[in-house]
């Protein structure tokens, strides 16, 4: 019969358990989200690194090719450098558009992750 009695001690104990369980759940959700984000970021960084090397070697090949056509490797490298300067100027001109596109892409990715988490929670109930 004492189990059914109202006790402040029992209420406090249940409240402590609730807070601990809620903290554990929040931590597990955090770990779950991080475990989805970090691998994607790692693959993206590795891909960017490889893309850098591809652009580097292709620009070297372009510089040598233009240099052979013009009989001046210096001119070939100068024209290739001018191409990259032009690209930098274009990025500067369209900076706000590029930032908006990247922000929208990030929002879509994070919302997709959140929707995946919500779907996982619904399946568990």
Structure notes:
The structure is a single chain. The chain has three helices and no strands. The chain is mainly alpha-helical and 125 residues long. The chain has one domain (2-93). Helix 1 runs antiparallel to helix 2. The longest helix is centred in the N-terminal third of the chain and has 63 residues, at 8-70. The protein is rod-shaped, with a radius of gyration of 28 Å. This is Putative Holin-X, holin superfamily III. The chain crosses the membrane at residues 43-67, 73-94. InterPro entries: Phage_holin_3_6. Keywords: Membrane, Transmembrane, Transmembrane helix. Pfam families: Phage_holin_3_6.
Helix-strand blueprint:
Elements: H1 8-70, H2 73-93, H3 95-124
Helix pairs in contact: 1-2
Protein name: Putative Holin-X, holin superfamily III
Organism: Olivibacter domesticus (Pseudosphingobacterium domesticum)
Keywords: Membrane, Transmembrane, Transmembrane helix
């Amino acid at each position: 019969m004492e189990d059914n009695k109202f006790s402040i001690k029992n209420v406090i104990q249940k409240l402590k358990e609730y807070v601990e369980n809620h903290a554990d759940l929040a931590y597990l959700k955090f770990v779950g989200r991080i475990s989805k984000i970090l691998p994607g970021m790692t693959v993206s960084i590795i891909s960017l690194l490889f893309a850098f090397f591809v652009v580097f070697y292709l620009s070297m090949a372009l510089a040598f090719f233009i240099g052979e056509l013009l009989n001046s490797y210096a001119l070939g490298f100068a024209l290739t450098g001018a191409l990259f300067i032009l690209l930098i100027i274009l990025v500067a001109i369209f900076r706000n558009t590029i930032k908006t596109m990247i922000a929208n892409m990030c929002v879509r990715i994070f919302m997709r992750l959140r929707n995946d988490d919500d779907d996982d929670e619904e399946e568990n109930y």
